[in-house]
Amino acid sequence: MAAGGGVQAASLMRTPSWAVRIRGADGEIAGAGILLSPDQVLTCAHVVDRAAATITAEFVGAADRRVPAIPARVDGDAYVPETRDADGDPSGDVALLRLERPRPAEEAVRLRRLSTSNRDVRMYGFPYDHNGGVWFRATVVGGCGRDGQVQLSPASPGELASAGCSGAGVADSVTGEVIGMVLSGQQDQHGNRFSFMSPAETIAGHLRQVKARTSGLSAVDPELRSTGDDASQGLLDEPFAQRLAAWLRDDGSQVKISVVRRDDAVRDATLRRAITLADRELRTPVSVSRAAQDPPGTVPSAGGHDLAVHAGGRTSAWIAERIALRVGLWQHADESPIDRIRAAKATLNLVVVGVDEALDPLALLDLLDALRAGGSRLLLVFRTAGDCHRRARDQLLTRPAQERRARLVERLREITGPLANALHERRAAVVPRGVRPLDAELVAAHAALADLLRAPEPAHGPGPDPARYERLADRVAARLATSVERLDRLRDRRDELTGRLRSYHVLHQHATRGAEDPAVDALYLRAHDLLRARPCDVRAAEAAVDAYTRRVDDHGGGDTR
After folding, report:
1. What is the DSSP string of 522-545?
2. Cα distances (angstroms) measured from residue 347 to each of 240, 242, 316, 340, 394
3. pLDDT tens across 33-73, in order?
4. Pairwise CA distance, residues 524 & 498, whole Å
5. Rounded distance between C-alpha atoms, residue 45 and residue 47, angstroms
6. For residues 372 and 355, what is the distance between their CA atoms, to the nearest angstrom?
């Protein structure tokens, strides 16, 4: 067994013992399920609806090579149907079944709380063409909606989770841990294919009975959770709440640094509120409804962070281990947590409160800087605006911004210099038929470069938005590359035509022993002049070479037999 009660990754090569096929009264497959305990099966509420009054759970991965079929019913009130809000955003769709007869305990599996970002996963479902069960592979794209659901992108078009997969367990491809349940799969009007899953924490948030069968630490340390007093006293710093909610909804800023003093009860409560509401498991319909009565823009999306750590009195090594466990890096325990994190290139949305109260705050800053450099997003809270806070701003904000701007300046110089020159050189060589002019794009790149060069240093004030200029650079560079590639194909065609014309001319001279033929020679000279012209009109030159070679062939001068 892997950490937390999941199955090891190697077992993904066989039918998992926890995979359940669910049939209704008509004998048709209604969906899938996950055996969480000897007598409990997790599935989707809509699977239960399709199965109607009579539900049969079939255990396709049973060790005795049979497929035991056991009647089941909804376990008390453990049924949360899907609901949709005014925007069509879904929530719920989970249910727990009670078996009439228990299965062996070793066949069951626990759900695992894990960060879902960018994970490769597998799900075992029962589509019509494979009703004995089949694995589907996918990659987690990201969170979607207000219920903390997660969007999956199938590894291939044929691996979209279809009917018969609803309720299937979603297993992490590296650890083998079951981290969620398939909700649905669909193809939109544009042909895009998606699957959706409910992560373990979202399920546990809906069904209290599932929490006992869910392993792994909560994403939020106890010190950072909202208290009853926070709500009863109406403690809310509205502007701060809006900034926190914006970051948790991914406002585009990678690192946010704030100061929340211990004696600032309102700001401290606002921070706890945001962290709690952004957690899939702690966020409840009651808390969301209550928060919705607060000012607009203050309620973050569920799943806005992957981990919220209280750093006070803890070492950077302890925090690194907390992160490693959260992203599923418990293998190779002989390596340091930070080495495991770097090797795995793990990324997450991380909240750290009390950075300056850690036992080794400077070492913690180095850990956070490594995470930032690897692509993680960081929300960092300090208790005082002292030396540690200033160093963090320099190390995690100012210097990275300077380096980012320097890279962007260098890239724009490359675009407006060598890449633009390469384009001009090729346009001078051949007539750019089918190649759109890029004058406007290059003017925009020159203007962006000028803006960046005259803007103040990041440490001295706000400057141009680098993300906007990076998008511009990406767009111009891509169009330059496409144009250069097309012009290179035209140059290659010109060179092919030049060789063809030369070889036919030699053959013609040999066939006629140097005798003049004014009509043929005129065709040759026209093709020759067109190929030597700068820029060369390749289309016109091709027509002229074709006319010459056909004439030579008609006279027998191109016969190579």
Report:
1. HHHHHHHHHHHSSSB-HHHHHHHH
2. 25, 24, 17, 12, 22
3. 999 999 999 999 999 987 777 899 999 988 877 889 999 99
4. 11
5. 5
6. 15
